Amino acid sequence: MRRVMFTVAAAATAMVLAVMPLAAAELGDDGLHKTAWMRDTFKDLREDLAEANADGKRLAIIFEQRGCIYCKQMHEEVFPDLEVDSFIHENYFVLQMNMFGDVEVTDFDGEVLPEKEMARKWGLMFTPTMMFFPEEVPEGVAAPQAAVAVMPGAFKKGTTLAMLRWVVEKGYETDEPFQKYLARQLSQ
């Protein structure tokens, strides 16, 4: 009887944990949210792309800034969702960059700039902004030209998860634009 009760209790606990979101990310010393799936690298995009490929993952960059209410929303409402969190863990090599940071970044084209100047070079104006990259980037190409998709701003779980899947499925190589893919995913 104890074994049956233990099994029932274990199953109930597993069901509760399966629907409970993860805790929101902690704030780092730089004021940005930190998650377990963010990678701490030297921010040389060529090296990071090679490491992502070696791990069988897609390279993504998320630009954020201290005090960003939309970044907070993503880290409290979207990223902690178990389905989103698991998908990112399994499929992405994610770099976090600070829109106003001073950490040096080496672009795919070899140019080295602080994060804030790289954000300007790339024409980024909103946080959060996620950039997604192909497995191969031709020599001399900068990140904005190499990106297969850019997601500027905060979106709810459905749109975010659809974008993550569309990139992994290489939807950008098909005739179905993301907007139609999203509509199809949300109607299922």
Q: Architecture in CATH?
A: 3-Layer(aba) Sandwich
CATH superfamily: Glutaredoxin
Level of helix content? 40-55%
- What is the radius of gyration? 18 Å
> Mind telling me the CATH class?
Alpha Beta
* Overall tally of structural domains: 1
> Under CATH, the topology is which?
Glutaredoxin
Unreliable segments of 5+ consecutive residues: 4-19
Strand content range: 15-25%
Question: What is the overall number of helices?
Answer: 8
**Straight-line distance between termini:** 42 Å
- Structural class comes to alpha/beta
Number of E-state strands? 9
Quaternary structure classification: single chain
Biggest pleated sheet:
5 strands, mixed
Keywords: Signal
Signal peptide: 1-25
Pfam families: Thioredoxin_2
Domain Thioredoxin-like fold: 53-136
Structure description:
- The protein is α/β, with parallel strands linked by helices and 188 residues long.
- The protein has a single domain, classed as 3-Layer(aba) Sandwich (Glutaredoxin).
- It is 43% helix and 18% strand.
- It has helices at residues 2-19, 45-54, 69-78, 82-91, 115-121, 143-146, 157-168, 178-187; strands spanning 26-27, 33-34, 38-39, 58-64, 92-98, 104-106, 112-114, 129-132, 149-152.
- The strands form 3 sheets. It has a 5-stranded mixed β-sheet with strand order 3-5-4-8-9.
- Helix 4 packs parallel to helix 7 and helix 7 crosses helix 8.
- The protein is globular and about 45 Å long.
- It starts with a helix and ends with a helix.
- The model is unreliable at 4-19 (pLDDT under 50).
- Pfam families: Thioredoxin_2 (PF13098).
- It comes from Seohaeicola saemankumensis.
- Residues 53-136 form the Thioredoxin-like fold domain.
- Residues 1-25 form the signal peptide.
- Keywords: Signal.
